[in-house]
Amino acid sequence: MEEQQQQNVLAAAFPAPPPFWQSFTPENLSSISSLRAAEPQSSSSKVEPDSATELPIRLLELPAELRCLQPPEPPVEGIYRCFGDLYNMNDPLPNLEEQGIQQLYTPPLTPTSNTGGKHTDRALILKRIAKSLLLNFLELVGIMSVNPEQYQEKIQDLRTLFINFHHLLNEYRPHQARESLIQMMQTQLERSRAETQGIREMKMKVEGILEGLSQAKLAEEKENEERGNEVVEDGRDVWEALEREFG
Predict the structure, then answer these.
(1) Which of 20, 25, 199, 227 has a CA positioned 20 to 30 A from the CA of residue 208?
(2) Distance between CA 197 and CA 62 in Å, rounded?
(3) Quick one: which of 184, 5, 168, 187 has its CA closest to 93?
(4) What is the rounded distance in angstroms from the CA atom of residue 121 to the CA atom of residue 172?
C-alpha cells in the first residue's frame, strides 16, 4: 500500500521531492565521504577519479541513514523507472505510420546501411521540409488576416511538417552517438600519444643528462690519472738526481 502511494506521488504532474532528500545533510555527506576515503582502492584506480565523469566508490554496507546518499545500481534488465513510469533503455524509434501520422517523405536508408549502394540525401529532405514549413506559415498568416476561422487545417499541416522534421532528425541519433563515441576515443588516443611522446622526450633528456655526467666523470678520472703520472715522473727525476749526486 505504501509503495503504491509512493508511485502515485511520483506519477503526479508536479511530484513533490522524494523523501530521501532529508538524508543529504552536511553530517551525512561528511560521514559517507570519510567512509569512501577509507575504502581500499584497487591498484588500477590509484589515480584520483574525476567527479564529473566517474561514479563514486559504491559501498556495500552502509547505515540506514546513509543508504540513499549513493546512486542506485544500474538496471540489469534494461528497464528503469522515472516519475512512476517504466522506460526501456533499448526502446526503438517507432515509425510515423505506427503513430498515426502521415509521412511526407520517402523513408531513406539508415545512415549506417548501404543496401543497394544508394543513400538518400537527408539534408535535402530537411531543406524541403523547412521550405514547406515557411510556406505554410505564410499561408497561415494570410488565412488569419482574411478568415481566421479556417486556421485549424493549416495548423494541422504545420504540426505534421514539424513531426516529420523532428522524426527525420531522431533517426540520426544512433549515428550521432557512434560518431560522438569515435570522437571521444580519438581524443583519448591523442591524449595517450601525447603522454607517450612526453615520456619519450623526458627519457631522452634524462639519458642526455646521464651521458653528460658520465662524460664529466670520465674527464675527471682522466685528469686525475694524468696528475698522478706527473707526480710519478717528478719522483723519478728526484731519485735519479740523488743517485747521480751521491752515487
Answers:
(1) 227
(2) 44
(3) 168
(4) 13
For residue 86, the SS3 value is strand
Q: What parts of the chain have a pLDDT lower than 70?
A: 1-13, 40-56, 108-120, 226-247
- pTM check: above 0.70: no
Tell me how crowded residue 221 is: count the other CB atoms within 10 A of its CB.
10
Residue for cell digits 487545417? 153
- Surface-to-core class of residue 164, CB atoms within 10 Å of its CB (0-12 exposed, 13-18 middle, 19+ buried): buried
The residue type found at 139 is E
* Residue 203 backbone phi and psi in degrees, to 5: -60, -45
Q: What element of type H or E holds 81? A: strand 79-82
pLDDT tens by residue, 107-140? 766 544 444 445 567 888 889 999 999 999 999 9
What's the burial of 171, exposed, middle or buried (CB within 10 Å: 0-12/13-18/19+)? middle
